[in-house]
């Protein structure tokens, strides 16, 4: 009798179970503590996490929110963006960045990205300002730190100063990343981040935070996110319900103590991919901008015939994905803003070529070798 070879276990894009196994006992004890005290809203774990994460990011203040999208919106509102204003943001980002601009009542004004890092291109900002009638209505500039590395902040800050803009960082994919030694979240007047489960620092549900060195802005964000109220039943302004859940704060505190180590493991895995894929025909490795300390939230290569390659990988148990297949300006929901195909060619081409490979702190060398072998086979089959 001929035995068939054993079926290999799939390689997930992200393995949340492995991360949970490291923190499970600490989280269980924390949950038990919260359940015993029933301090489910604005409990001491929230305050402790806000203090710890602010210190981690090198800023004075952190305000927890219910989601990363809320964090961007509240940061924009605190920065004064609203109806009649425009907000600059890159065309290559998750839709939430642009959604938050709309929720604040402002207009998203898109900027193409550089061809290597695929981050907001300072050289393209003047084009966007010209498209807005010279930038008279532009209030805020939102650089997005994509895939785990920072946008070219020194150039973007210089542009912001020149045009009188407030900088609000979208640091949702950059927990622990640095540029010339300065952490993500510590460059702009404000920064917003997300703790969606798949992030480097991920909760067990939605969560987010706003970071700032400005006590007054932090107070405004906290006020906006808690029904415009400092004292129960006294509402100073129109606000929202967007608070970080106490149980999520327990999870985040447990994971934060391990984040530096997990980021180091991601870095080692990225170096392993570079060695495995560097000489592979048809694969363009991700570029790291000079001065950046990348924390590899996403390991995205560029390949020809991307969709066919992706289908081959997924069909062979490799949990590859795409960030993001449709740029913001080509989304059906953004048709009213008058953008068209060809307006942001760098972002559009990247959307057709980017392929995210499995990467997480607990990925093994054997798993990465299998990914590389399967990718080579996929490329050969799709030529």
Describe this structure in words.
One of its GO terms (molecular function) is transaminase activity. This is DegT/DnrJ/EryC1/StrS family aminotransferase. Belongs to the DegT/DnrJ/EryC1 family. Keywords: Aminotransferase, Pyridoxal phosphate, Transferase. The chain is built from 12 helices and 14 strands. The protein is of the alpha/beta class. Helices cover 39% and strands 14% of the residues. The relative contact order is 0.16. The N terminus is likely disordered. The protein folds into 2 domains: 240 residues, Type I PLP-dependent aspartate aminotransferase-like (Major domain) (Aspartate Aminotransferase, domain 2); 123 residues, Aspartate Aminotransferase, domain 1 (Alpha-Beta Complex), CATH 3.90.1150.10.
